[in-house]
Amino acid sequence: MRMATQADPAIHERTSVEDCLQKLASARPSGHPLSTYRLQFHKDFRFTDAIAIIPYLHLLGVSHVYASPILKARAGSTHGYDITDHNLINPEIGSEDDFRRFVNELHSHGMGLILDTVPNHMGVGRGDNPWWQDVLANGQAAEHADFFDIDWDPLKPELHDKLLLPILGNQYGEELESGHIRVEFDPAAGFLLRYYETTLPIDPQTIPLIIAPVLETADSETRSALGLLLHDLQALPLHSENDSARIRQRQERLPGLIKRLGNLVESDIAVRDLTDRALDSINGHQGDAASFDSLHNLLEAQVYRLAHWRVSAEEINYRRFFDINELVGVRMENPRVFAQTHKLLRRLLSDGSISGVRIDHCDGLLNPRQYFIRLQMLYAAAHCCGTEPQPPLAENGIEIEVQRSFGDAAAAGRAPLYTVVEKILEPGEDLPTEWPVHGTSGYDFTNLVNGIFIQRENERAFTDIYNKFLGYAPDIEQIIYESKKLIMNTALSSEVNVLAHMLDEISSTDRHARDYTRKALRDAIRETIACFPVYRSYIDERGEVNERDRIYINTAISRAKRRNSGTAAGVFHFLRDILLQSGRENSHGRSIDSEGYWKSADYDLYRRKLLFTLKFQQLTGPVMAKGLEDTACYTYNRFVSVNEVGSSPKEFGKPLDEFHKGNLLRATEWPYSMLALSTHDTKRSEDVRARLNVLSEMPKLWAAAVSRWQRTNRTKKRTLADGRIAPDNNEEYLLYQTLVGAWPFDLDIQDSAARKAFTERIQQYMVKCLHEAKVNLSWINPDQEYVDAVSGFIADILTPASETRAGIFLNSLQTFIQPVKYFGAINALAQKVLHLTAPGIPDTYQGTDLWDLSLVDPDNRRPVDFVQRQQALQTINNETAGPAQACATLLADLPDGRIKMHVIERILCLRRERPQLFREAEYHALNVTGDESAHVIAFTRRSREQKMLVIVPRFAHTLMKGRIASPLGEVWGNTAIELPEDCHGNYSDRFTGMSISSADRKLQLKEAMAHLPVAVLTNTEE
Question: Which residue has the higher pLDDT, 675 or 225?
């Protein structure tokens, strides 16, 4: 079957670019996905493995596979986000031929591919990134020097023209004199440095430092041959050169010189012998500290300065992905970088291999909107001009004609390439409408749908339970604020110091601000970021400030001033004026040119202020992510279902109206936005959260249970040498919620192998939580004694008293968890139906097509048993009983998860059968009447003559008064749904096949949910 998104040969005919763009702009979005299924590719799950499951995914109803990054990544990568070459398929997951077979298999089933792309950063560990190696060898004279976000003039004077490389496991001197850093020779690459598995290049100009000390021991012929080569190497322009002609000269001469060196060593045994002696000499001898002086001098002459990994927090001078040293920020705003990193992507767009993209970490980009526009132009160029760029080209590698025409064509107002962005939206924040994208990757929906299954009126009760368990009352607002400051004082302190230095230099030019000290400015920056209400603002290189960003910045400044009443308000006002570009105003009578910019020195100052603002924006996002998601979400554990990416621990449920308003907004503004319940980054799977939400309905039972468990397990805690007791109360409270949420449906506590596997999962998870919370230990301050104590506590409480007796805690836990497991599954079914029918494109994370009780990575990266899933789907499809009886059987077998698969398959196939019902349908919330109306969520989707009614329960534990049974039939009493005038008529239930009619524009719940506690009704009148 030919994919609608494949390149149309007709478009490649010699039509004008304008005509082609018009065709793309006017094309209907039939190639956009109807649903996606996320696959995580790595060396243990390759293209060949994916090919094998495509028939299953097709039967499930999936329209598009949504793939993790497939480009060449660091060797052994388990996720693919550490890309080392944007223009090669990752050989660990398959060859290009394997990829083509994978795509062809998708297309043969009428399916497409959405590709996860990573424009913000690249992986640079172990010497396998050629661009980074070029920079390490040649510094600012490297061809790729401007590809990475590097500060060559950092605060520390001795790092001027150098790159701090914090890769050492110990102090530099110790690693050097232990012989862990060694010089080696490779015939192809020349001399290089080896530090364990990491390979580092050597500045070719410094090669004489290796050979010269032993050159006099060689014969005259060897001295002559090598002497001339060493002279030519020494004559190379410096790596710190900034003259373009000199840089070009170095780049042109280097390959020939390195080749000459390799040929000499390979062909001349005397030269090879001399090289061996040189290596023996410079590498020193352990126990003789002075013998390492030459190696030290060589290292000091390199572009980089090797340092202990802890140094990175304060002194690193390149932008990273958050605080990960091996992921270096790429300057995607540089058009050359865009051109060089999107060659393969253009080919995949041109030949129809991929139908769309997901953009990872868009907030890390200097100008996200600029990138999205270029991406849409690339798609247009790929379809209008072909696979390979056709000169004349703009610097970004896109045809000038396309770039010129794109702004005037109808395509400029739309996004012809299906694009979703990984963007975390805070409550009340909307995705910028000026971005040419189709929506987010779905975290906003994750938290919206999760919130409506939390019983909000019990918030005070859960706060009291938590405070009593801890013995004190933590302040969540203060925790978030302090967590963000902690990140800026530790992991990201270097980035704050750079901003402070930039602002200090700017302040020296302002007579009203020059007396502010660098400390005062740094404090103002830190406090403002700690109070920033969203991940970032989006002021671009033109300095345009919209009202949305003005509000965010003013809010942050106001909050920072209130928290720091002892600090002069003027320093915050100065920072605010810089961020809001108030300096563009001609407040001192300066000369302004026709475009509104200050001339000469004034314009230079304006550009410095703008650069500060752009860099400030790139820092607020990582601070929010590391402070809120990766610290506060592991610190404030009142109700961990809400401690999720894009959510906040301070929340406790959402009003149902907010859910409906969010759906209505998405239906009208972002109908192709992705919807997620579980992702590779969620801290708990959808089914864990659904189960934990049952606790919100039973505060008294929960309070009694955790109080009993705390007393029972008190003696199993460990007292450490420093007096601390492990785990502390907060960690113990998190542990109990985790056990309830992740406890497998079929776990037999007397099965030692199964119990051990589960215990190890929980231990690994809690170790991660301990480090992320940064209270008793952290990643930079590990404490193995504490880790062992907590792991031992977990093992003890999960060990039966004997082979035949579970013990007090395990007996209590298993008794308590029975109704929670059951009604958690009901919640999971309900939220899955909403996920599959709400406006947007539902994504199913691998493995969640059956019950999945995974926790955060690496727990959610465990291998998926697709054979089990294929067999489960086959048993469902082979059921000979009628649909209603089949549903009853699946519901009775609820622990095996097939009921969830059945729900998924039935709705995904409906999406495929009636695409317009989901692509173009209107959304309307439905009013519910009757005694149990508070337990119902209902809405309708309508498109032309097609109608769909969606009905699911909530708070089923409360509805059933704790009795373990499904909310079916007469349980609903007089509860009914009021239908709009044009929605009455005859309907068929998608799951049970039962026919249902509405009378007097009302639909009785006891009829709609007579056989299954969820209903998706479609009109039978075509």
Answer: 675
Mean pLDDT of 842-859: 97
Q: Average the pLDDT over 567-573 and give the result.
A: 95
Measured distance CA(784)–CA(782) in Å, rounded: 6
Helix (H, G, I), strand (E, B) or coil at 753: helix
Overall average pLDDT of the 43-65 stretch: 98
> Cβ(977)–Cβ(921) under 8 Å?
no
- CA torsion angle for 359, 365, 369, 373 (degrees, to 10)? -60
Q: Which helix (H) or strand (E) holds 899?
A: helix 898-913
pLDDT in tens, 992-1011: 999 998 878 899 999 999 99
Question: Counting runs of H as helices and runs of E as strands, what totals does the chain give?
Answer: 36, 29
Q: What is d(CA 428, CA 410) in angstroms, rounded to the nearest whole number?
A: 31
Rounded average pLDDT over 73-97: 97
The residues facing 1002 across adjacent strands are: 978, 999
In 3D space, the residue among 238, 787, 730 whose CA is nearest the CA of residue 472 turns out to be 730
Q: What is the rounded average pLDDT of the residues 265-281? A: 94
Provide the token pair at 703.
């309070």
Per residue in 465-483, pLDDT (tens digit) is 999 999 999 999 999 999 9
Q: Which two tokens stand for residue 983?
A: 């929605």
Which amino acid type is present at position 975?
T
SS3 695: helix
Residues 429 and 620 sit within 8 Å (Cβ to Cβ): no
Q: Identify the weakest region by mean pLDDT among 710-719, 759-768, 885-894, 978-987.
A: 978-987
DSSP secondary structure string for all residues of 933-973? GGGEEEEEEEETTEEEEEEEE--HHHHTTT-SS---GGGGT
User: In this structure, which long-range contacts are made by residues 933-936, counting pairs with CB atoms below 8 Å and at least 24 apart in sequence?
Assistant: 933/975, 935/959, 935/967, 935/975, 936/975, 936/977, 936/1005
pLDDT at 600: 55
- Identity at 22, one-letter amino acid code: Q
pTM of structure: 0.95
Do the Cβ atoms of 278 and 182 come closer than 8 Å? no
Q: Note the pLDDT of residue 363.
A: 97
What is the distance between the alpha carbons of residues 360 and 341, in angstroms, rounded to a whole number?
A: 15
Is the Cα torsion angle 456, 460, 461, 465 positive or negative in sign? positive
Residue 421: phi and psi, rounded to 5, are: -120, 145
Residue for token pair 């090797």: 306
pLDDT digits (tens, 9 = 90+) for 189-229: 899 999 999 999 999 999 999 999 999 898 998 899 899 99
Give the pLDDT mean for 72-79.
95
- CA-CA distance, 405 to 735, in Å (whole number)? 58
CA distance 888 to 301: 75
When pLDDT is cut at 50, 70 and 90, the band that residue 658 belongs to is very high
In this structure, how many other beta carbons lie within 10 angstroms of the beta carbon of residue 591? Answer: 10
Q: How far apart are CA 272 and CA 310, in angstroms?
A: 39
**CA–CA separation, 351 vs 112, rounded Å?**
12
d(CA 614, CA 611): 5
**417 with 352: CB under 8 angstroms?**
no
Q: Which two tokens stand for residue 544?
A: 């345009």
Q: What is the pLDDT of residue 427?
A: 86
Q: What is the DSSP string of 638-692?
A: S-GGG-STTS-TT-----HHHHHHHHHHHHHH-TT-EE-SS-SS-SB-HHHHHHH
pLDDT at 4: 37
H helices within 490-637, ranges in order? 493-507, 518-530, 547-563, 569-579, 600-624
- Is 837 strand, coil or helix? helix
Give the C-alpha distances (Å, rounded to integers) separating 717 from 503, 783, 791: 50, 17, 10
C-alpha to C-alpha distance for 681 and 15, rounded to whole angstroms:
45
